[in-house]
Amino acid sequence: MIEYLIFLAISTATFALFALGLNLQWGFTGLINFGHIAFMTLGAYTTVLLSLKGVPLLFSAIAGAIVAALLGLVIGFATLRLRADYLSIVTIGTGELIRLVVNNQELPVGDAWVSGAFGVQTYTIPLDATPNLFLRLLMIGVLTFLAIVTFFSLWRWVKSARISRTNNVAKNNSSKQEFASRLGVGTILGLLTLAIYVAGVIGLYNYNPKAGLMLLALSVLAFVFWRLEFLVRSPWGRILKAIREDEEIPKALGKNVFWYKLQSLMLGGAIAGIAGAFFAWQLSAIYPDNFQPQLTFDAWIMVILGGSGNNIGTILGAVIYFAYDALTREFLPKIVPLDVERIGAFRVMFIGLILMVLMIWRPQGILGKKEELTLGK
């Protein structure tokens, strides 16, 4: 149970990072990216191949993020001056093109060249050596700090909605709904944080390398979330939102809309590249088929579920997605008398039904704001 919770925490943190990059591009800037997996693929392979050449893991992961950002630069220069439809078409093609190139080319694995179809195995992952007791206690202290910061942030987030409800008389009903939403979400995330904290403490004390990877993934997720929240509330972030709503307005104010779009595409790609490094480290062996287009649409599901243009909502979407995946994988075969293939199709069909209902009942997502909807404008 402890190992499974650690596995789920790493998966959720990795894909929350992946979805945060997409949310920056789509939720805040309005860029339609259906090939987000391309950035993750480049990040994963760059990190792994450089680490096999002896480059330290930190610099390998940074290089993976830079290469993914450069892909955003290339795509942006090719498409951002055109209509938005072209961006979506090009990104779909780019995602598949990179996967097929990796599958059909020889890769420099160590001192030899190996066919990409055979994948890359036996590479180093972070914190795989058992640390001494002092370092383990230090890691538990870092995890404790992250848990305390998470609890405090959730409490402050819920409290801000309560204050808004108290001060807002004209829109009392909507304020009550927002407070109820935040209270429910805050409670769920708080309980999950507690469960992951307990599993992490046990896994770090009786050292499990995956627990160390979980701590690293959660730390990077917390840092990226913190900086993104700062950026999207800054003048830079307000310009991105203005571009999403109507790019002619910031153009009229003298803003270089193309440059801001390019920055968003590159930064979102770099974040996805970092997620690719964690994805590779968790798998311990990567193959081209690990990077199917389905992963892009999984990220879209997370963004839409939580609410586009809302970073907390994106993380919530990742939590809901992996909770749904774990629960249906475990309990659905006991309820629905179908074979393995049909069970898999049924799970995909059911989450599609959930999305359809959500789009009717709450098109802005669980935490999104209806006035900030951009799809279909």
UniProtKB/TrEMBL annotation:
Membrane topology qualifier: Multi-pass membrane protein
UniProt keyword Iron-sulfur, yes or no: no
Superkingdom as given in the UniProt entry: Bacteria
Annotated CDD domains: TM_PBP1_LivM_like
Transmembrane stretches, start-end: 31-50, 57-78, 133-158, 179-205, 211-228, 265-287, 299-324, 344-361
GO MF annotation: an example: branched-chain amino acid transmembrane transporter activity
Taxonomic path: Bacteria, Bacillati, Cyanobacteriota, Cyanophyceae, Nostocales
Keyword Transmembrane helix tagged: yes
Gene Ontology cellular component terms for the protein in this record: plasma membrane
UniProtKB keywords: Cell membrane, Membrane, Transmembrane, Transmembrane helix
Name this protein carries in UniProt: Neutral amino acid ABC transporter membrane protein
Cell location: Cell membrane
Main location per the UniProt record: membrane
